[in-house]
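Here is the promised in-class demo. Please do not try to memorize the tokens; focus on the logic of going from shape to residues.
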């Protein structure tokens, strides 16, 4: 079941390197619940209809210079209404700083004021991107997520079928582990799913008969990755001689997570098959298809042309 998340305000401060201009305000327990932001241009002129007060409020250079042109008598009632609107926080960007009236009312209504030297447009893009990932609906599934040639490959299958061993071989071949055993899938848009590891199991792989292996320690920081878009799914399953497996790949199969479809391949397991090389080949083939080349369609075209030529 998908769960809509909230973010601790302190986490945003830490991740985006924001300066806390109101250190006396206790931010513990303060939450962000929407990935959208608001530049309070109209609000600072006194128009508060349709004010999106639940969003992070961003004061850029334009808002700052406008406020500097107003007298204290004009600004104070607007500040009062602004800070009393139950806003989560205010971020000053582009090397601007809050004035005393803003700080006074921020303390009165317990609204944190933060600042960053980053330009307003750049900061907005970054904070929206980050919050979209953090607040996205998510589920946790059993599997292994690996970055193979830039393609996010989610390996699924029954417990003990060889998912972790395949991931370890891929890591030895220069690819990167995102997570083993538990994959947190975030729906960041109608087209994109992002996978990551729970903090408690990050960088660890469980190998039956050996135990827990720390991939980052054994193979170095280049062997792991924090997050990865999920581009395809490979399901490992026991070989069934009575089952018909797709040998051409003309028709794509899909699986669904959080309403998003992802290309899915079922891979039968038999002794002697090098799963790592097969996964590599599947990832490269998937990239080729995204670039407009489909090997199965090309073979079909050649066969049809040959038949037409003979007839």
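The designed amino acids, position by position:
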């Amino acid at each position: 079941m998908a769960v809509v998340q909230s973010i601790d305000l302190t986490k945003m401060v830490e991740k985006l390197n924001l300066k806390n201009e109101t250190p006396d305000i206790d931010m513990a327990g303060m939450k962000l619940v929407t990935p959208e932001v608001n530049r309070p241009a109209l609000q600072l002129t006194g128009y508060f209809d349709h004010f999106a007060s639940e969003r992070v409020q961003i004061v850029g250079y334009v808002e700052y210079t406008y406020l500097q042109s107003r007298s204290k008598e004009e600004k104070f009632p607007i500040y009062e209404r602004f800070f009393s609107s139950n806003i989560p926080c205010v971020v000053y960007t582009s090397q601007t700083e809050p004035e005393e009236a803003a700080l006074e009312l921020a303390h009165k209504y317990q609204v944190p004021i933060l600042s960053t030297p980053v330009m307003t447009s750049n900061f907005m893009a970054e904070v929206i991107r980050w919050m979209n990932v953090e607040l996205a609906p998510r589920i946790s599934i059993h599997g292994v997520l690996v970055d193979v040639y830039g393609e996010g490959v989610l390996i699924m299958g029954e417990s003990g079928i060889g998912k972790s061993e395949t991931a370890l071989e891929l890591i030895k071949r220069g690819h990167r582990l995102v997570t083993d055993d538990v994959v947190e899938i975030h729906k960041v848009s109608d087209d994109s799913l992002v996978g990551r590891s729970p903090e408690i199991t990050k960088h660890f792989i469980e190998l039956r008969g050996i135990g827990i292996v720390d991939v980052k320690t054994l193979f170095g920081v280049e062997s792991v990755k924090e997050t990865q878009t999920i581009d395809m799914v490979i399901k490992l399953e026991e070989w069934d001689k009575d089952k018909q497996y797709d040998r051409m790949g003309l028709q794509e199969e899909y699986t669904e997570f959080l309403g998003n479809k992802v290309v899915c391949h079922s891979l039968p397991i038999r002794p002697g098959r090098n799963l790592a090389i097969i996964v590599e080949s599947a990832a490269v083939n998937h990239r080729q298809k995204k670039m407009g080349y489909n090997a199965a369609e090309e073979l079909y075209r050649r066969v049809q042309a040959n038949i037409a030529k003979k007839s």
